[in-house]
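INFO  loader      accepted 1 record
INFO  loader      residues=393
INFO  predictor   begin
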Amino acid sequence: MNNQPRLVTTPHRRIPLDIPEGVTPTEFFNSPCNLRHLARENGLLRTPEDFLLYRKAIGHSNLFDTSIIHDSSQRILDPLGRPVRRDQLNKREKMVFSRMTQVTFRYMCEKYPDPERYLLFCGEASLDATWPLGKPGVPSIRMIHNHFMVFDNVELAAAPAAAEDNPNLTDSGHNGIFLLYLHDVYLRFFEVLDLEILRPLAPDQAQIKITGYPQGLPSWEVRGGIDALDSGRFWKEYDMILRGFLDFYRAFFNLVASDSTQVPADTTYPDQVEDVLLFNSEFHRAARILRLQVLEDPKFANEIRWRPAYKQLIYRDDLGRLIVTISQNSVGNAITELLGIVIKRVDDEEAYSKTEGRLVGQLLELRNRLTQYNFGEPISTPSWPAGVFVPPH
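INFO  predictor   done
INFO  writer      dumping tokens
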């Protein structure tokens, strides 16, 4: 039963908020009104830079599950005017975001120290201006965020297998193109990065045992483990991987969109884009396949994300190594699914109530630690009005 994607059922409580008539759920969830409600009902801590730590009301894991978003929704009303990538944050914002990630990930490692028993990871996600707001499956919060989760490997191993052709696992069909035609050039392109802390791994060396994922993605081991996240050098290299990915993405989809071999003006590694990518015949072959599909299939054309959209993960594998990986983002392709975990959320208040107290207790512990490190101010909500969990009546 190993090396199979898993289907995990996660109960939640119904969100006590009605969606107005004539508005799609995604449009409503992305509204400044709903984001204000999110902070009031589930907010844990807010920093002066507008980073919001909050409890996931409809989460992926009820063992440990939280998120940090750059919630500028009350200042910037245009959803497409908000930062969606690390490279769009200013220097101070990026440092705060990285440090909050470092503190949260260390807390997870301390609470769940056994790598054979617990899978833990976090993933940054970005969207872009071509994501249709009303499309089902599109993530609801159009701003940069980092999602932190822990899963029990015993429960994962006992979970039923997910369908291999689940659209959330196949990256809307684009991942097949990458695996078939772009795998080698993709990995070769990342070899040019000047990395000291991050050590490249062969894709099959980065897989977690239970699911066999991630599949075909470039991966790097973090030399020094959790302590490396205390280093500015680690975050510099983390950004180098993102910038390399953005170069690859832009060059490829420029080729798909207009058959252009022009190196984009904002490219970080222009020589490598030309040398490794634009002179590679398989790179052109894959672009031609997508180009023909876009011309012939309107449904497929609507799935294309023309601007860079990505998910970048840090996870701890079965051996206790910390690993970084990065993937393009597509409709419905959640962070968990890059590691072969498909989540089925169910409205079950009774089941959720059995785990809520322990989950919230950990989040309040994390909040206290972040407050001690001068990140921001605690938020009072109906569930923790004075920093202590109060079960709903």
